[in-house]
Amino acid sequence: MSEFIAESIESKNALNMATLAAALPVQILIFGEIGTGKKALARKISPNALLFDAQKLQKLMLNNSINFNDDKNSTFIINDIDKINNIRQFVEKLEANYIKIVATASSEKDSFSEKFAVRIDIEPLAKRNADAKVLSKYYLKEANKLFNTDIKIDDIKVDMSRNSISLKESIYKCVVFESLNLEQVQTLLENFLLKEMDKKSDYKDLLQIFETPLIKASRIKYKSQLQMAQKLNINRNTLRKKINQYGLGD
Amino acid sequence: MQKLNEKFLEDDLNPFIIFNSSGKLLQYNLEAEYLLSFVSPKELYELAVNHASQSFGTKVSQISLRFDRYAFCALLVGYLDDDIIGIRLYKEMKNSTLKIKKDNLTIVNIFTLIQLSKNSVLSNNKQKTSESFDPTIPEMKLNVEKFLKLLNRVFEEYLNSKEMDIRVSLKIGRNMLIEGKSYSLCNITIQDGEPNRQLNDTIHTLANEANVIVIIKNGKVIIEFPIIT
């Protein structure tokens, strides 16, 4: 999703700042974790700006492979400015060529943010519930359509550790898993086992791949080990042994 | 000869004051008269006594001092008997004049800049902020980049404040003469109740670059600048 989602108060503030700063002749820094929407916000500030990766632009500048004469008074969106060294010099050189910068960064070093008159912080998605909800719905709709499923948002455990990146990943994985039929699961397993066999070939070791999900699923279904052993038609001691062996005990 | 000495002292750009032994003002020049509207005679008398030579004579002290908008870089204190003591304060001239570099000026709304700067620096802070903005202040020409950097640096001073008050007003009754033209003045006053707030030199350097004056008065930080429309 390339649009900046602004449903939460935090992102509305960020968008408001971006709108105010867009009209001013100032260098802007957008700061936030990976996947928080920095690039999308930068595009809101300057929809037609040239987009550069900081490391690549620095290399071009060092090799004199870029001519700024045609770019005077234009805006550059520079991604991951924190990934380069000598940020201050880099910014000063662009300033000397009358380039307006909208930079993104996810970490701070050498207090380089002082070089920017405006700093917009984007909060992690975990702190922006309203935005996370909109994004989850968007990706779920997209994935349901693609895999012809009807998964509900409540059935998904959304991962926001890497913000929208892990959120999208977790939703797509969940939908894919739910959409698989027996044949597809078996093909998946076959391919997986083929790769695993490069590392281990012992039947007992490989058995864990089948038995772990079986035990986990039956525990959800039958609750007690007594019931699990009865339904799976397996000796209770054998079941207990396997639970301990695979580290599945409570 | 005596008259010429007196005339020189009277017209000197540096304040000159003579006190009696109990700290009463005996004589002062025009510049001192102006300085005395910002600082009490008692404070200046104590300054003189604290920097006087050990025995009769004069002593120069290199000292950085700030009273309101005035910055001084040295003091000359002298006394020839126990009855009177004189002090002359040497101005740091670069801080007391304002020159406007006309390039890089953009017409802006001052409230927008304050909002942007406050959000840039204090967005993660939960302090209670009260604001009082005079809506009659017009849009004005400023060096936006430099002005925002100065504001950012000033707001950084308030990162640990529990509450703060921001006021933007026109300075009534005072104008600033720049290159023969008179301009009204705008003030941004920021305070958090801390009476002993000090500002470091970075702020004054940024203020010079942004063509504004930053003064500190009773713990309040006052940013003063001409309204160029």
Description:
The complex is a heterodimer of chains A (250) and B (229). Chain A is an alpha/beta fold and 250 residues long. Chain A is built from 10 helices and 5 strands. A 5-stranded parallel beta sheet of chain A has the order 2-3-4-1-5, with helices on both faces. Chain A is elongated and about 80 Å long. The mean pLDDT of chain A is 90. By secondary structure, chain B is α+β, with helices and mostly antiparallel strands. In chain B, the strands form 3 sheets. In chain B, strands 2-1-5-4-3 form a 5-stranded antiparallel beta sheet. A 5-stranded mixed beta sheet of chain B has the order 7-9-10-12-11. In chain B, a hairpin with a 2-residue loop joins strand 9 and strand 10. The mean pLDDT of chain B is 87. Classes of the chains: A alpha/beta (250), B alpha+beta (229).
Explain the layout of strands and helices.
The complex is a heterodimer of chains A (250) and B (229).
Chain A (H helix, E strand, L loop, with lengths): L8 H14 L5 E4 L6 H8 L4 E4 H9 L12 E5 L7 H10 L3 E6 L12 E4 L7 H19 L15 H17 L2 H15 L6 H20 L2 H8 L3 H10 L5
Parallel strand pairs in A: 1-4, 1-5, 2-3, 3-4
Helix pairs in contact in A: 1-2, 5-6, 8-9
Chain B lengths: L1 H10 L4 E5 L4 E4 L1 H6 L5 H10 L6 E11 L2 E10 L4 E8 L1 H4 L9 E3 L1 H13 L5 E6 L6 E3 L1 H13 L6 E16 L2 E11 L9 H9 L3 E5 L2 E7 L3
Parallel strand pairs in B: 7-9
Antiparallel strand pairs in B: 1-2, 1-5, 3-4, 4-5, 6-8, 9-10, 10-12, 11-12
Helix pairs in contact in B: 5-6, 6-7
